[in-house]
Amino acid sequence: MASSTLTPPPAAARARRTGSARPGRRGIARWAVPLAPAVLLLIMFVAGPIVWSVWAAFTNAALTGAAAANTEFVGFENFQNLLADPAVWNATVLTLIFLFGSAIVGQNLLGLALALLMQRRNRVTRAFVSTVVVGAWVLPETVTAFTWAAFLGREGSLNTALAALGLPPQNWMYAAPIFAVILANIWKGTAFSMMVYSAALQEVPPDLKESARVDGASGVQTLRHVTLPLIRRSILTNLILITLQTLQVFTLIYIMTGGGPGTRSETLPVLMYEQAFDFGHLGYGTAIALVLLAVAGLVSAVYVRALRAEGSV
Amino acid sequence: MTISRLRLPARAAAAAAVLALAAAGCGGGSQEDDQTITVVYNTYGGFMALHNALEDVKPAFEEANPGWTLELQPLEVAEGDYRTRIQLMQRSPSTAPDIVYEDTFWIQGDVDAGYLAPLDEYMAGWEDAEQFNEAVGPAVTAADGQRYGVQLGTDTRGLFYNRELLESAGVEVPWEPETWEDVLEAARAVQREHPDVIPFNMYSGTPAAEASSMQGFQMLLAGTEDRLYDEASGLWVTRSQGFNDSLEFVQTVWDEELGPPIEDALNPNIGSVVGQEWLPEGRLAIALDGSWKSQTWLETGGRPWPEWSEELGWTAMPTQNGQEPGRVSMSGGWALAISAHSPNPEMAFEAISIATNRENSLNYVSMASEIPVRDDVREDPAYVEANPANEFFSGLVDVTEFRPAFAEYPQVSDQVMVAMESVMTGSTPEEAAQIYAEEVTGIVGPEMVTEAP
């Protein structure tokens, strides 16, 4: 179900294109005029800021100081500084760790595992598990961040529990801040992968699994050779979506650790915010945003290519 | 109308109407009434002192100037966001308020950005101007020598200490340290006598943010011969002896375990831990902190502690070796400034002069637990008697110093915190000062840096 809604069948797209191209001038007015308000709004509030931020990335735009009065075009200076800035490299590595740990491994595998385990369970179990997991997903990011900060904090619930068991307390937020935010993001985001996979698994014809079992395949072998190949497209689609979601996670990290201690959980979005708003360097901040956009674009291009290759098989 | 001729669905017309309204709303901005003065300020974190003060100013201003209106526009946003918000507002004449409430150390940057109007001309015609203490003048004076704000109040910094802990450790009370070594010696005495007590706290490292740089590091640096920025040459100073010595002090505090455990020191909330737990519970002997700290312990504060003024003593932070002037302090504080876009700067100044007159200043500093900048308010018995520490902390205004108020300062300050954190966690002061020098050169440019001999 979900896999087909996530990747619209090409036939529908083709039908829409021919439908709009046919009518004459009167026909154009027929769809252009009602669309105009929406298009204008999109241009004003979506395209406008994007164009502005691309332009700003090539200037020394600032919130205060002399550069705010006389904003100048500086060419590729922001990008040169960016390449030489150890903070950017640090943030890039942390962003990739965060992406890999919380999305590609954490949410993806945990979501798949939950979806597999929930198959063939009774309705009560399914309803209970989905409510809990989806509940975490529905919570606003700020609430999630505060919850996890309270849980992992030095005098938080986790340490209270550890102490009750006679175990030494841990200071996660200080000792392993990136791990703490990865955990929180897995907790928050797993529901999405779980729902995508639950839907995809329902599409796997039961008779295929049945026949595999008759042929003597074990549970793991059935999963490896029957189920996974059949839901490959959903896996790729899910990976694209959670990658894009995870790359832009800001609120969670900003509230939990503020990017610290030091810069040990400062991912690209947090660094971008710090540069643009704490230090007032709008130009440099938007340059970092463009880099983030490029990274996201690159990753999705890789996935889309893989997806297309899969589709043609 | 063309729209009705096309007989479009009602929905499209409605959408167009909404769009037209939205466009009209964008262009309008605040209704630019010729006879209105707007003032923008912050009420974040329950900070109502200014709001209450301005509510008294409004009728006074309107009565004195018939036909004019003072429009109060309180924002309620966290401090960093407040700065962004007002800077964005000041970028355009259609959104800029007439009067804006600014942290004094944003002033230079906002003057460079062309956001603020100079006030010397108006100050010259205002008899109260001479009441403003000379020591706080630099805080609102930009590089061009003109004043750009009128201060509401300020703050100072010094040492709070637990009388009983120091006395029982053999330190003479009232305690009056004359050098850094005296401070460390007292902390060592406490450490020997009370192993379960934290002998000394100063804010340090990146999590405590500006408190580390200003309340911690710059309180040390101000007691040396060096500064972060050399006023005379207009250059940022790196590799100075004073910078190294200050870092060495930080290193000593954590090497000898005179300070709080490192994970506590690097807790972003350490400020409230000190005020709400450590000092009231007698778990900390000496705290380098701000004049406003006692606000928490008043009946109206977050952690009432009626005995605080008997259990705690307070004294000035000494200079490094007892050199003149013997005590140091750093100050911040907020001011009312006039936007460069204001069509009525004279009337805006009129409103500011009412807000900062003797009576309103006294009310404001009492409500906000700030240090008066007007000499007549500082000496007013009503102020002196309001809090037993008021007289002492307001006396520090005579020696107090301000942060270098430049657009680059927040980034330089960030590097100060990084340098502090690295000596706390094992680097030598020389290594940290070297990295600081390289980073600061990168931030302000090599032509803006001087190396101390």
From TrEMBL, chain A:
Annotated CDD domains: TM_PBP2
Transmembrane segments: 31-55, 87-116, 128-151, 171-187, 235-256, 282-304
Signal peptide: none
GO terms for biological process, alphabetical: transmembrane transport
Domain ABC transmembrane type-1: from-to ranges: 93-303
Record key words, sorted: Cell membrane, Membrane, Transmembrane, Transmembrane helix, Transport
One GO cellular component term noted in the UniProt record for this chain: plasma membrane
Keyword Protein transport among UniProt keywords: no
Cellular compartments annotated: Cell membrane
UniProt membrane topology term: Multi-pass membrane protein
Residues covered by region (Disordered): 1-22
Tree of life domain: Bacteria
InterPro entries assigned: MetI-like, MetI-like_sf
Predominant location: membrane
KW Ribosomal protein (keyword) present: no
Entry's family note: Belongs to the binding-protein-dependent transport system permease family.
Protein known as: Carbohydrate ABC transporter membrane protein 1 (CUT1 family)
Organism from which the protein derives: Allonocardiopsis opalescens
From TrEMBL, chain B:
UniProt keyword annotations, A-Z: Signal
Residues making up the signal peptide according to the UniProt record: 1-22
Keyword Glycoprotein on entry: no
InterPro entries (alphabetical): Bact_solute-bd_prot1 (IPR050490), SBP (IPR006059)
Alphabetized PROSITE patterns for the sequence: PROKAR_LIPOPROTEIN (PS51257)
Gene3D superfamilies xref list: Periplasmic binding protein-like II
Protein name per its UniProtKB record: Carbohydrate ABC transporter substrate-binding protein (CUT1 family)
Organism of this sequence: Allonocardiopsis opalescens
Lineage: Bacteria, Bacillati, Actinomycetota, Actinomycetes, Streptosporangiales
